[in-house]
Design goal:
99 residues, three-stranded antiparallel β-sheet, two-stranded antiparallel sheet
Length: 99
C-alpha cells in the first residue's frame, strides 16, 4: 500500500481532486506516479515516528523467547488462535496495543 498526492483531478473508483492524498495498492500507485497524475505522498514526522515505534516494538517482540511471548499474551489477555506461530502471536499483540 502506498500513499499518493494527486496532481490533478482524476477518477480511480472515486473522484480525487488536486492535492488530495489517498492510498492504493503498489501497482496502482506506481501507475499513477508514472503517468504524472500523482506523486508519492510525503509522510509527516508524526507518521514516521509512529512507524519507527511500531518497527521497534516488533523487533523487541521478535527477540524474546516463545515462552515469554506466551506470558505477555496471557498477561495482556490477547486472543490468539491455538497453534499460532510466533509471527501471528506478535501480530496479535501489536494489534491489541493499537486498540
Amino acid at each position: 500500500m502506498k500513499a499518493v498526492k494527486f496532481l490533478m483531478p482524476f477518477t480511480v473508483g472515486a473522484l480525487y481532486n488536486e492535492g488530495e492524498v489517498a492510498g492504493f495498492e503498489d501497482a496502482i500507485a506506481a501507475d499513477l506516479i508514472e503517468r504524472k497524475i500523482a506523486e508519492p505522498a510525503k509522510a509527516s514526522k508524526a507518521d514516521e515516528a509512529k512507524a519507527a515505534a511500531e518497527a521497534k516494538a516488533r523487533t523487541d517482540l521478535e527477540a524474546i523467547s516463545d515462552e515469554h511471548l506466551d506470558k505477555l499474551i496471557a498477561a495482556q489477555k490477547v486472543t490468539v488462535a491455538e497453534g499460532a506461530d510466533k509471527a501471528a502471536k506478535i501480530d496479535a499483540l501489536l494489534a491489541a496495543r493499537k486498540k
